[in-house]
Amino acid sequence: MTKPITKEELWSKVQAEFFTKLGRVTFSTYIEPLKPITLEDTSLTLSVPSDMAQDIIDQWDREYSMDFVQFAMTIADGFIKPDLQIAQPKTTAAAPTLDNLPFTRESDLNPDFTFEKFVIGSGNENAYAVARAVADEPGQVYNPYLIYGGVGLGKTHLMQAIGNAYAASTPSAHIKYATAEDFLNDFTESLRAGDGATAAFKQEYRSVDLLLVDDIQFWSGKEKVQEEFFNTFNVLTKNGKQIVMTSDKLPTEIVDLQTRLTSRFEAGIMMDIQKPDLPTRVAILQNLSESDGLTIPNDVLELIAEKIDSNVRSLEGAFHKFEASLRYMNKPATKETAQQILGDLNINQGFKITVERIQQVVADYYMQTIDDLKSSSRKKDLVTARHVAMYLTRTLTNESLPDIGRAFGGRDHSSVLHATTKITEKSESDPRTKEMLDALTDEIKNGK
User: Any idea where the AAA+ ATPase domain is (predicted)?
Assistant: First the structure.
């Protein structure tokens, strides 16, 4: 370590970085309870409350220890690692049994993910309406329910809001939330542990009243887990139990997802969530400001909302960085402070990515016009240009397949899917195509 610093100063600055990265809820759970004890050479010892030690330590082992090292490297100009110590003597862990295998633990829902805290806008109002109906009558309407859309648009929030609402109205209900990766890991662990564990796994997932599964695109190409979920799906729906899932794309777009699963999902209802419009983004920031007890002028919130239009997660991340500057650096809640934060995030650089900009850049590259891209012409060069433009729209924006099809002359979603699949396969096998796509992406983002 080359920069002198006290343990309190180091931990305070690291906390500010974690607050920006994680947000208030996760920060208060996994970071705030820790206290600095000693700072010696390359190690900061942190005290962990005994009543929540295992949960905190597990989370730090999975993710936060590496974040800490990176933050400390920037703050202290040297390598410092965290050393977590439980405040009270650690009790001996019980020997593994069917009762304490990981997959038999109840999956907690985030209490902040409620319908009341979900900001409704034009991009999510339909998905919200269906979610409300599912929560009111689980297993009776819209079963299964699949929410799909780009990263950070609120799919998990809406799905867990269903669980929280159902839990409030029916306290005795057995509700299970798991990511697709959790389901895979639980299934794998049950196979490793033997027949008894396999039976316990099936009991855990097939005896629920409501099953919530996040990010099913994770099962792409994983045949065994797909087969297991297919069987679980059949048992639950046969018994009138509700299934809700999220994905970053339609089932037909998930590579190597079994057709029988796709058909099961399509038998229910699928709703997409799109990027929030400006009024929705402002409302999201107002909610965050109020929930965190801050008074921030509307013109400041509007500035942040105008500059960040990609997704809710990015918007919240910028807000938390802004909030950290107010709380930990005593900055004023002004447009100047917001501009500084946006500059640090490189928000002011580059062009706004829209379907129209992508169409223009691609049309110029292929010496065509936007009208040509939207036309019904099947000339080879024009078809290639149209496919490339559709592919880039799909990868650089959060537009849904139907919306992309409409933007390209009223084509249906299957045409867009065909185009994106074709260009994806070509880019993976042809380095020149990948180089061309990278160049177009750079031009679209930065005008270079």
Answer: 141-277
**List of residues 6+ apart from 284 with CB closer than 8 A:** 119, 276, 305, 312, 315, 316
State mean pLDDT over 249-253: 86
* Residue owning tokens 């007890």: 293
Backbone angles phi, psi at 72, to 5 degrees: -65, -35
Query: Mind giving me the DSSP string for 251-280?
Result: GGGSTT--HHHHHHHHTSEEEEE----HHH
User: Annotation-wise, does 156 bind a ligand?
Assistant: yes
DSSP 8-state assignment for residue 101: S
Give yes or no for a contact between 109 and 160, defined as CB atoms under 8 angstroms apart: yes
Give the confidence band of 89 by pLDDT, cuts at 50, 70, 90.
Answer: low
C-alpha 8/C-alpha 39 separation (Å) is 9
CATH C-level class of 355-446? mainly alpha
78, 154, 83, 165: which is closest to 123 by C-alpha?
A: 154
CB 50 within 8 A of CB 13: no
Q: Enumerate the H helices of 119-222 as residue ranges.
A: 125-136, 155-169, 180-193, 195-206
Q: For the domain 7-86, what is the CATH superfamily, name and number?
A: DnaA, N-terminal domain (3.30.300.180)
In this predicted structure, the answer to whether residue 38 has a pLDDT above a threshold of 90 is no
Q: Which CATH class for the 102-273 domain?
A: alpha beta
What is the domain partition of the chain in residue ranges? 7-86, 102-273, 278-344, 355-446
Cα–Cα distance measured from residue 332 to residue 7, given in angstroms and rounded to the nearest whole number: 27
Task: Match 């907690």 to its residue by tokens.
Answer: 108
Angstrom distance (rounded) from CA 374 to CA 405: 9
78 assigned ligand-binding residue: no
Q: Is 90 annotated as a binding residue?
A: no
Sheet holding 35-40, edge to edge: 35-40, 43-48, 81-86
CATH code that applies to domain 278-344 = 1.10.8
154 known ligand binder: yes
pLDDT at 241 over 90: yes
Crossing angle of helices 312-329/335-344, nearest 10°?
120
| CA dist 172 → 165, 210, 230, 292 (Å) | 13, 12, 26, 32
Tell me how far apart the alpha carbons of residues 166 and 173 are, in angstroms, rounded to a whole number: 8
- CA distance from start to end of the chain: 40
Degrees, nearest 5: CA angle 143-101-110: 50
Token output for 272: 């997409």
Q: Is the pLDDT reported for residue 102 higher than 70?
A: no
Rounded to the nearest integer, the mean pLDDT of the chain is 86
CA–CA separation, 444 vs 448, rounded Å?
8
Q: Are 109 and 210 in contact (CB under 8 A)?
A: no
